[in-house]
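Worked example

This section walks through a single chain of length 343. The input is the sequence exactly as stored; nothing has been trimmed or padded.
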Amino acid sequence: MTTTMTPTRTAAGSDFAVLTRRINAEGLMERRPAYYFARLTVVALMVVGGWTAFVLIGSSWWQLVTAAFLAVTFTQLALVAHDLAHRQVFRTKRPSEIAGMVAGNIGIGMSYGWWMDKHTRHHNNPNHDDLDPDVAPEVLIWATESAFGRRGLKGFITRHQAGLFFPLLTLLAIDLKVSSIKAIRNGTVKRRRLETALLIVHAAAFLGALLLVLSPLQALAFVLVHQAIFGVYLGMTFAPNHKGMPHPTGDEDFLRKQVLTSRNVHGNWLTDVALGGLNYQIEHHLFPGMPSANLRKAQPIVQQYCEQIGVPYAQTGLITSYRQALRYLHEVGAPARAEHAGR
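Given that input, the structure is written out below as tokens.
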């Protein structure tokens, strides 16, 4: 299992080497301890504040507001875990893994080891039909060839996947947990016993709190609202990044492989906070160890250099990025619709 977020094939090409020197000259790869101290403190306060409010409110339907707030909190916690995995927070492996498991396994109930392996493979070959697990044909499909021969429920989803995309995101949080359990069972996760124990701690604390404070019906409603909003928000932070962008052959040099498959989302500081810096997806894929606070500063440097060497640089607004992704999903499902009509 790959245990580092650094691409397996080092980017020694001349274009990337020149860009790297420009980035290093600006000091943008240097750690930002003050930034991450502040960010982690805010997220920790959100976690403590959310659960404190949960206890103080008690058995009440107003807890659905708490569920929504904690869903946002869980997503921000997941974004912190993402930065920890890329060693943007700590320079060395051990503290990154410890903090990552606290945020991932205990905090949101997702196996950090499973996600680490999956996300590493994505970074190594983004949007590659055979090598990127994020575009593997599962519930949704991202390559036209995968649309043929799908029948029953899968076929229905494929034919209507653009319209079903956001409703399906409500199940994303559940899918993370199911995939985590499967990965632990099949040996994908390196520290199986530890991660299992941490996931049990999360489940026991989360469900125990609901059953102690809320009525059974309120607890069920809390879980549904919390998991649905968490899934939608988390999915919306990743959906604009690569969906609808070209699928490479794998023969491209590192710079082009990362830039051509990624899409940036421009916006203000609120966009940066809401998406955890992932709106600078091109810069993040080129320099995954760069602190997310520095990505905004790196963006004009990378864009100017790409224009200089003739590499297309995709950047759009948030709403437009979703439209492009949904349009792509609709186009990919066309063969399934034609096949269904023919039958």
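What to look for: Residues 1-13 have pLDDT under 50 and may be disordered.
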